[in-house]
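Title: Prediction job returns without error message
Component: structure pipeline
Severity: low
Priority: P3
Assignee: unassigned

Description:
Job completed but the reporter wants confirmation the result is attached to the right record. Sequence as submitted:
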Amino acid sequence: MQFLQTNGRRDRTASIPAPRPPSRHAAEAALVEHYPALVRLAHLILPPGLGRHRRVLAAHALVQRSLGRAGGGTRIGTSAGGAGSPGGTSRIPAARTGGTVDRSAHDWLRARVVRDALRPPLRVSRGAALPQAFGLRVFPRAGGTDELALDRALAAAEPTTRAALALAALEGLPPPSVVSLLRRAGAAEPEQAVEEAERLRALCSPDVAELLGRPEFDPCTVHLRPTDLLGRGRRVRLAALACGVALLAGATAGVVGRSPAPPPRSAVSEVPAGVVPVSVPAERWADSSRVDFTAWPARGDRTGDQVLIRRALAAWTGGAPLPAGAEPPSLLYAGTVDGAAVVLLHTGRGLVRYTDAGGRAGRPSMVRARADSSDVTTAAAVVLSRTGDRTRYLLAPWVAGAGRRDLRAPGSPLRALHVAADGTTEPVTDPEPYTATAPCGGVTVLQLRSSTRIVEDHAFLVADLGGLVAAHLTWTPLPTPGDPARRPREATGPLGLAAWTHSACSLGRLRDSGVRSVNRWEFAAQSLPEHAGRALWVCSRADTWDGRGQADVTLEVPGGRTVPVTTVHDTAACGRFGQDVLAGTTWSAPGGSRYVLAAGSRRVVGIAAEGAVHAGAKGRLLAVRAEGGAPLRLAGRLPDGSSLPGWASRSVQGGG
């Protein structure tokens, strides 16, 4: 196992001996000296489900209470005299020697913070007994895409894994010391936690320590925002009204004894008992580690239309009760869109869109779609209606800016997209339907920008591929020799937009196939024989909501031509769990000679070809003159000696 990289501070001990409670003065001095680091450590370990506001406050609360059992008599900072000492004067922490505090006191505080963060007290987990910030919400500043990716990975990890990563990356502890500390904190399998932390570091970034040290993960440097002012005012008024009603009820008790008449029954189809849609607070998305459909509030001009909502629920359930243990759906939208009533529900694993045109277009319709494992990008835009060649979207509440652009014209400016207060967009003209014979015209995509309340400087592309949810488009550029493997990045910059120009027309083939995201991966570049220029090997991977993937491998040659190599369905290749790729094809040079071209991804160290040619090459590129028309077979060699099967096209392609 490759041990975790640290931030440069090394603990030379093989394990941490159980520290004895320090003196009160030593504990106070250690707390003052290391308070920011201890709060950051607690914040990283605490469950993200607390929400960003309560998580920050809970981290401060745990650290502030870590002094509870330090050595000494009376509680720290208090006395019978009320000022922290018998004489009524406040205690001053013991003087520090050489600018440092007692190391054992720091170790003792750190161990208590880790233990309490792994098992937060019930009062802290429920939000009680926390430092108070009346009328304000606090949260660390938003980061960039790397910080957002790391934050999402940490949210999905176990608490002990987060603790192991924080102790190694921030505190500089070697694995044996981390294991020892976690075991004393009550972790069941500390060795496994250290291994999981190493895997998490490898998947996220080699500079996890540097990322965790940034202000985005610092609960001592926070932004302040007001709470829901309108909601707070309503609660105050309702509380006053409730008091008045209680007084009135007490005064009139016994005077009125008749029960009110039951409300009239609705003629709407019956909805099974317990099927009542829920609605999350309007600001949930800004105070949650799950920035997805679960954080969408209910919007639209008909959220109070219970008749419409009950019709949608009855159509969704078909009159059948929910399965045991199933959560009720949440209402995301209810309103009038292009003359039709539309209701959008989130059912946990998917979305349901109910549309009733009022008899003008036949019976009401309902569309279902998978939407589990969504995130800030794949839960950013939902199709509310399609009328002719125009589409109207509902954007996520965290989308702060929206525009549209043509992928076939990367140099054209971003065109503004009007978004109403409830998140609905103006109609967007769809691209022309794809056919095998029709040339590819313009390809319209949306460019959206996330609010700085969740991530800074984050813009991304989504495309309507016929589904209920718009698909996220990303780009992975060519690898740099000697550097770690690159991860997919947003394609909104000049280079990303220029790259997607070549793959834009391929999106049409993915329509109506449940695509969640598409990543264009440029895995190799190759100089063509006979000085014919430079070619680019590309694998475009489309991930669907049900987990299946499709990989399209192409060779882009000079002159703007794209040569299809192969398409592989139901594969992990070209994705996070299939990072080794080898592909080849035959190619005709401008002079008429035929060649076999092959290229592998960054870990390929050798290529062997048979069939159309019998040849081999060291490295990850092969270019030899073709010997015949037999099918091409390829095999690659990886650094560990294992073999990698290659993909090859059987057709001879025209010159470039």
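Comment from assignee: result matches the submitted record. The chain is about 25% helix and 25% strand.
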